[in-house]
Amino acid sequence: MIDRYAQRTVNILMAEDNADDIQVTWEAFRESKVPIQLYFVKDGMEVFEYLRRKGKYNVAPRPDLILLDLHLSMKDGHEVLSELKRDPEFTRIPVVIMTTSEDEEDVIRAYDQHANCFITKPVSFDQFMRVVQEISTFWFTIATLPTGMVYART
Fold first, then answer.
1. Is the pLDDT of residue 150 over 70?
2. Which residue range forms the structural domain that includes residue 130?
């Protein structure tokens, strides 16, 4: 495997309102071999405040990956995903759906909206840790992501 990201920190935006899931994800990424900086937002509206660098996010780095829960307030994950993938500025950012849903309709809808991956969150701590570490391995050592994309202020 090629470690394309060894020379820089990878920025991940996680849209999640469950404090326990945030904590486990944080711990799992801390053990990653890839230097990762995690940024968290708690609802669907805040995703776009972050991405558009509004308010407290005025110097936010462009995420290399977005982890998106479907069950968010203000705008649910499906609304966020649809808007992300329609916007030319954000469409190339990979979006991994991480949700408790096992509903086939959610899976189909997410892929129809161009999600890059759909993961049902494991219940156990150990499985959750393993899944997050696998996400890191796949997206930042196996997959090739676009680099040098312009992140304009809007």
1. no
2. 10-141
